[in-house]
Structures are given as C-alpha cells and as structure tokens.
Amino acid sequence: MDNFQKDIDDRANLTLSNRFELLLFRLGTSLHEQKSELFGINVFKLREIVPMPAFTRPAGMKAPLLGMVNIRDQVIPVIDLPAVAGCKPETGLNILLITEYARSVQAFAVESVENIMRLDWQQVHTAEKAVNGRYITSIACLDDNKETNNLALGARR
C-alpha cells in the first residue's frame, strides 16, 4: 500500500480509533496575556482554507463581522475571530477558515495556520471550569511534556 492510500485509510479510521485531527492556528497576541496563543478546530468542521480574499462590508454591519465574501459562488459572512477571542494580529488577518456548523457556513479570519495534529479524544478536556470565557469550549494537550505544556484552545462559534 502506498503512502497516499495509507493516509486515506488512516483518516477514514480516525473515529473508529477514538482519534481526530485538529487544525492549529494563531490569532495574534492575547490582549490579556501579551503572548500568542494556539487555537484549534476539528478538521471535520472545515470546508477549506483560503488566503484572505477581498470582502465586501455592507452598511450597518457590526463587529465582529468583517463583511461578506464570495467563495465558489456562495456568499459567506467573515468573522473577525481575533476580535472575538481578545487578540490582536501581529501580521494581519491573512487566512480564512471556511467552516460549516449545523448546516451554517461561515468564514473565520485568522492570522496564521500552523499545522494539523492527530490526537486522542482523551487529550481533550472541558474548559468551562478552567477558562473564564464563553467562546472557549475545550483545551487539548498537544504533548506529554509537562515542562512546555503545549495546549490548544477549542473555540465555539
């Protein structure tokens, strides 16, 4: 079996093995902590990732909506995810994450995309008690290193 076919088989069997893929991205510097936090989204919620296109801002549109973008003949709202999470992008909003939740399509503007990690669901912990914020749903432990304690925050729409 070649590597391409193995990768397809591995992806198809993720749910059977209680695993998932997490796309890691950055929103900029946290206004509270003054450091760049790592955020994540389940790859199954992503439709596509595109470089930041031009978008239209209709009159009266309020934050955190940046505007509307036409992607593949579909008009999609663009949400300023750093503003929602209390972050300031250092290099600008460079990437759009086109997502689909409950048959609703939206685009999240983010600063950068890091990589995709495969994790066990056991590495994910609820954040309701750990984080004082209504948008953070979970915290994923990215490795077993207690010194670096690499974490990714999962956000809800």
Automatic annotation (TrEMBL):
Key words, A-Z: Chemotaxis, Receptor
PROSITE patterns: CHEW
Pfam families: CheW (PF01584)
Domain CheW-like: 19-157
InterPro entries in the cross-refs: CheW-like_dom_sf, CheW-lke_dom
One GO process term, biological-process aspect: chemotaxis
PANTHER family to which the protein is assigned, alphabetical: CHEMOTAXIS PROTEIN CHEV (PTHR47233), CHEMOTAXIS SIGNAL TRANSDUCTION PROTEIN (PTHR47233:SF4)
The protein's name in its UniProt record: Receptor/regulator protein
Lineage, uppermost ranks: Bacteria, Pseudomonadati, Pseudomonadota, Gammaproteobacteria, Enterobacterales
Gene name of the encoded protein: cheV_1
